[in-house]
């Protein structure tokens, strides 16, 4: 069963708790939290304090996507705040294997994220150590951007790499996912689909989540 992770980047920050509860009620599997620092990406969102505030609002796993420079410095704070999955960009980590080890030491699941320009091959050395690989299908920084179709091949390559190595990791896809592009991602081997505007931009959240999941 494909999981759906609504991105609260597209929620209304003035009533974030209600928007989190609403997607939980509508059948979401994870709550995707986009953390941006204005350096690694050209936008600033929220930090560990926001994660701490959201934690008691939902029973769903908090899937924290760190789009920040120097993530090692903040991983402990996000884990303490209640993150269940912490994903770091391969491009932001000089010592990626060490950073992944550090996330796991905090007792949370570890994910590695690939920008569109980063190849599947670049994470072969750490794929055995992660719980999740997140494939960006837009250049990170903003919601509402168009899906880059060339990334479907990368999803297939990571699926093949994981299958050949007998790994049970989750492959998550993020950026420009809607009912149409979700079908392509599922076909390419994705397990978790992140969507912001295609969920929060719709009146019927349940219908939006169902159409992305495909069932
Ligand atoms: O990480 C990011 C953007 O950098 C995403 O999680 C976006 O929040 C997805 O938004 P949509 O493309 O689905 O509107
Ligand atoms: Fe994200």
Automatic annotation (TrEMBL):
Substrate binds at residues 7, 65, 141-144, 174-176, 196-197. Pathway: Carbohydrate degradation. A divalent metal cation binds at residues 32, 34, 65, 174. The active site is at residues 34, 174. Its cofactor is Co(2+); Mn(2+); Fe(2+); a divalent metal cation. InterPro entries: Aldolase_TIM (IPR013785), Ribul_P_3_epim (IPR026019), Ribul_P_3_epim-like (IPR000056), RibuloseP-bd_barrel (IPR011060). It catalyses: D-ribulose 5-phosphate = D-xylulose 5-phosphate. The keyword Manganese applies. The keyword Isomerase applies. Keywords: Carbohydrate metabolism, Cobalt, Isomerase, Manganese, Metal-binding, Zinc. This is Ribulose-phosphate 3-epimerase.
């Amino acid at each position: 069963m494909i999981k759906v992770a609504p991105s609260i980047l597209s929620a209304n920050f003035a009533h974030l708790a209600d928007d989190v509860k609403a997607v939980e009620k509508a059948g979401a599997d994870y709550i995707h939290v986009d953390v941006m620092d204005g350096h690694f990406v050209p936008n600033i969102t929220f930090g560990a304090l926001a994660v701490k505030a959201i934690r008691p609002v939902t029973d769903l796993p908090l899937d924290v996507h760190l789009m920040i420079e120097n993530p090692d410095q903040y991983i402990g704070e996000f884990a303490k705040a209640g993150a269940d999955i912490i994903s770091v960009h391969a491009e932001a980590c000089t010592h990626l294997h060490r950073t992944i080890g550090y996330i796991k030491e905090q007792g949370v699941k570890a994910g590695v994220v690939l920008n569109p320009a980063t190849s599947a091959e670049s994470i072969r050395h750490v794929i055995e150590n992660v719980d999740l690989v997140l494939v960006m299908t837009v250049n990170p920084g903003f919601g509402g951007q168009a899906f880059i179709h060339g990334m479907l091949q990368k999803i297939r390559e990571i699926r093949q790499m994981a299958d050949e190595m007998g790994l049970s990791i989750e492959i998550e896809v993020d950026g420009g996912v809607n009912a149409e592009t979700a079908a392509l991602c599922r076909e390419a081997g994705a397990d978790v689909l992140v969507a912001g505007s295609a969920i929060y931009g719709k009146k019927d959240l349940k219908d939006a989540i169902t159409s992305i999941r495909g069932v």
